[in-house]
């Protein structure tokens, strides 16, 4: 069970969306990305605050390997909703390249662009080494330095004395800063976000458990007013499926749960199985237990159950914003979930 920290948020939180550009068996990448853009348009119509996509590599189930490109397409297809990354895995990239990419997005679309930054690779070690062209692992440990360097290239902080950012200008980039967030699934990024005075988002949708409220407590205890504002701002991501009954929602969650269970148990990444494939699967006891525990941590059920889970998560974390991760075996299920959660 989640344990509430000392500070909770009694106000009604804002709602945003994290879309994983899901690729199911039998689906093309074009279809998956088209569904993401359709979902973004509907999220805007429903009144969600922001729409994020996440960087993953070598994952057959996720088509958002190039978040800056996808964000540009989503921003062009919408007009009011904030669009951004949840997140860009900064150790995979040169900070200068990210400054130029997101500076370009801001130059094109104005103050609608968010840059959420993570330090995990978003992939396996082999793929990570190819992305970085670096056989060492020090790039993840250098994450705080990369964040500060990125802030300098955006012109949010002065150029670093004797640093690379003091002699190179990001164009676009300098003067074109997006709204920046630090993302995490542990206390490391929570503490760093607090020390830098940046907003913080926690990935409860895949790292849910007792550590969720702890991370928010760490963030607030370490928060110092800074570049992100004078008060802490936080967001929690939660997977959600809304159906007529809890049992039906759990049935619709079978494909995603089967994919995650296989990966947790050492299987190779694959596309998300269809609902028929997941229902026909001979579930092991370990797989069933994994699915049950995952469902209990997320907002999967009828509307009252799903909203109750979200309310409990907000009470436990004090989050100002909830990042809904709509799931399900088809687009209709995802869009229904978004409509009912915010309705």
Low-confidence stretches: 1-10
CATH topology: TIM Barrel
Structural class: alpha/beta
Strand-and-helix sequence, N→C?
Answer: EHEHEHEHHHEHEHHEHHHHEHEH
Strand order of the largest sheet: 1-2-3-4-5-6-7-9
- Overall outline: globular
Can you tell me the number of structural domains? 1
What is the CATH top level name?
Alpha Beta
**CATH homologous superfamily - what is it?**
Luciferase-like domain
What summary fits the major beta sheet? Answer: 8 strands, parallel, barrel
CATH-scheme architecture: Alpha-Beta Barrel
Number of strands: 9
Residue fraction in strands: 5-15%
Instruction: Tell me the number of helical segments per DSSP (H or I, 4 or more residues long).
Output: 15
Radius of gyration: 19 Å
Summarize the structure.
With 343 residues, the protein is an alpha/beta fold.
Q: Overview of this structure, please?
A:
The protein is α/β, with parallel strands linked by helices. The N terminus is likely disordered. Helix 1 crosses helix 2 and helix 3 packs across helix 6. It has an eight-stranded parallel β-barrel with strand order 1-2-3-4-5-6-7-9, surrounded by eight helices. Strand 2, helix 2 and strand 3 form a beta-alpha-beta unit. It has one domain: TIM Barrel. 46% of the residues lie in helices and 15% in strands. The longest helix is centred in the N-terminal third of the chain and has 18 residues. It starts with 13 loop residues before the first strand and ends with a helix. The chain has 15 helices and nine strands.
């Amino acid at each position: 069970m989640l344990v509430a920290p000392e500070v909770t948020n009694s106000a009604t939180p804002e709602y945003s969306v994290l879309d994983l550009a899901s690729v199911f068996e039998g689906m093309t990448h074009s279809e998956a990305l088209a569904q993401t853009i359709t979902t973004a348009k509907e999220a805007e119509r429903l009144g969600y605050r922001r729409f994020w996509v996440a960087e993953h590599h070598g994952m057959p189930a996720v088509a958002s390997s190039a978040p800056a490109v996808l964000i540009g397409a989503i921003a062009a297809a919408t007009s009011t909703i904030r669009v951004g990354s949840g997140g860009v895995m900064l150790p995979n990239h040169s900070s200068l390249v990210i400054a130029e990419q997101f500076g370009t997005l801001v130059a094109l679309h104005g103050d609608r662009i968010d840059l959420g930054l993570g330090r995990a690779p978003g992939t396996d070690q082999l793929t990570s080494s190819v992305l970085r062209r670096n056989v060492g692992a020090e790039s993840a440990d250098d994450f705080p330095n990369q964040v500060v360097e990125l802030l300098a290239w955006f012109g949010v902080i002065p150029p670093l004395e004797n640093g690379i950012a003091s002699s190179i200008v990001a164009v676009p980039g300098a003067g074109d800063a997006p709204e920046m967030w630090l993302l995490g699934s542990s206390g490391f990024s929570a503490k760093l976000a607090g020390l830098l005075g940046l907003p913080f988002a926690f990935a409860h949708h895949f790292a849910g458990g007792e550590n969720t409220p702890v991370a928010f407590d760490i963030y607030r205890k370490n928060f110092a007013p800074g570049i992100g504002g004078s008060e802490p701002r936080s967001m929690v991501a939660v997977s959600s499926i809304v159906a007529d009954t809890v049992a039906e929602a759990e049935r619709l969650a079978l494909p995603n749960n089967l994919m995650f269970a296989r990966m947790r148990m050492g299987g190779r990444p694959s596309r998300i199985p269809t609902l028929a494939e997941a229902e026909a699967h001979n579930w092991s006891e370990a797989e069933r237990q994994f699915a049950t525990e995952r469902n209990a941590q997320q907002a999967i059920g009828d509307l009252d159950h799903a909203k109750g889970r979200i309310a409990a998560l907000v009470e436990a974390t004090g989050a100002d914003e909830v990042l809904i991760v709509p799931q399900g075996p088809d687009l209709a299920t995802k869009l229904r979930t978004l409509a009912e959660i915010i309705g």
